[in-house]
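Technical annex, item 7. During the second reporting period the consortium partners agreed on a shared format for inverse folding records so that results from different sites could be compared directly. Each record opens with the tokenized structure and is followed by the designed sequence. A conforming record, contributed by the partner at site C, is shown below for reference.
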């Protein structure tokens, strides 16, 4: 077209064609730059999405939509983000509600208001049914209310503190049992202690503020012995008095 213009400078047609060509080249360049910017935004948005930086990802997906409004992908990603953020908000609200109820239940439990505490633990389970903590606390309350408290295994590598009492010393034994009556709740408390070369099942029965201590001592070599307030007793007496 330029060669044609050189021959006939006054002809309009080749000039018009050159103008069209220039516009097509400019449009192609602009389209290439737009595509490059779009891809860059999508790549960055995908990276942010992958690292769960959802706010930044959503911002870049929206910028990509502003460049290419007909593209479905960034719109689909924004829909996913909105669902994720809505779920996160709901989960946080649920957790906050659960934590508040558990705190309330624990306070009631500490005050020995067991019926109200149990109701609160049940409310917590209604929010998060798979949580083990409120289930365990409800079982603990049921055991307390039935007169038996179960204490988790206490692991020690040496002699337990309660083994130091000398039951032959009547004054020391009296003080020891008096302290048990103050320390342990009314009813029956069962403890399991894993010591270095033996296991001790310890049962404290607190009745009318009078404590009686029973022990089953199982040695690593196989010997099993039964005691009541430090005095050796038979297996039958042990189970009759502690059942």
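Designed sequence (site C submission):
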């Amino acid at each position: 077209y330029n060669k044609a213009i050189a021959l006939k400078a006054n002809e309009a047609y080749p000039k018009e064609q050159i103008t069209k060509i220039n516009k097509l080249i400019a449009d192609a360049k602009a389209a290439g730059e737009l595509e490059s910017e779009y891809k860059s935004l999508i790549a960055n948005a995908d990276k942010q999405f992958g690292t769960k930086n959802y706010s930044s990802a959503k911002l870049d997906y929206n910028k990509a939509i502003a460049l290419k409004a007909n593209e479905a992908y960034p719109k689909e990603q924004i829909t996913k983000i909105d669902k994720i953020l809505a779920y996160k908000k709901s989960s946080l609200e649920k957790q906050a509600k659960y934590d508040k109820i558990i705190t309330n239940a624990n306070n009631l439990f500490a005050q020995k208001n067991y019926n109200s505490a149990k109701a609160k633990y049940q409310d917590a389970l209604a929010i998060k049914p798979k949580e083990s903590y409120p289930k365990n606390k409800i079982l603990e309350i049921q055991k307390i209310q039935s007169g038996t408290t179960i204490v988790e295994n206490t692991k020690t590598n040496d002699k337990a503190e309660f083994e130091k009492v000398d039951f032959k010393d009547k004054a020391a034994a009296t003080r020891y049992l008096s302290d048990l009556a103050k320390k342990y709740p009314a009813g029956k408390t069962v403890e399991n202690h894993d010591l270095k070369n033996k296991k001790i099942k310890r049962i404290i029965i607190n009745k009318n503020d009078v404590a009686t201590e029973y022990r089953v001592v199982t040695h690593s070599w196989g010997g099993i012995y039964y005691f009541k307030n430090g005095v050796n007793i038979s297996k039958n007496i042990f189970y009759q008095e502690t059942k």
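The radius of gyration is 39 Å. The chain has eight helices and seven strands. All partners now use this format for quarterly exchanges.
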